[in-house]
Design goal:
Length: 120
């Protein structure tokens, strides 16, 4: 089981961009599927993007398709979520999760989360 840590959240105006990073120290991280999911008050948890270890499978939720890009650098043990054209409805706590098999979770590991706030 890997331990993951998110970073890169913050506050931005609508239309702006943020980049989130998910890092792990274990070398086996490169073989894990990693997903970003978010939790907003009063809303269900939503997996918004995911990528498998070989990058052959990538998923985007309809709510972020065309605006967010997930990528990974296995040499650096990181997975990045580039978020562009942010909207107020993207405001949430964002988590990254990792799993040896499941692209869309449930994930065996996840981090503490990072807050993203988008103002109109």
């Amino acid at each position: 089981q890997v331990q993951v840590v998110e970073s890169g959240g913050g506050a931005v105006q609508a239309g702006g961009s943020l980049r989130l990073s998910c890092a792990a120290s274990e070398p086996t991280f490169s073989s894990y599927a990693v997903g970003w999911f978010r939790q907003a008050p009063g809303k269900e948890r939503e997996v918004i993007a995911a990528i498998n270890g070989s990058e052959s499978s990538i998923y985007y939720a309809d709510s972020v398709k065309g605006r967010f890009t997930i990528s990974r650098d296995n040499a650096k043990n990181t997975v990045t979520l580039q978020m562009d054209s942010l909207r107020p409805e993207d405001t949430a706590v964002y988590f990254c999760g990792a799993d040896r098999a499941r692209l869309l979770g449930p994930y065996e590991s996840w981090g503490q989360g990072t807050q993203v706030t988008v103002s109109s």
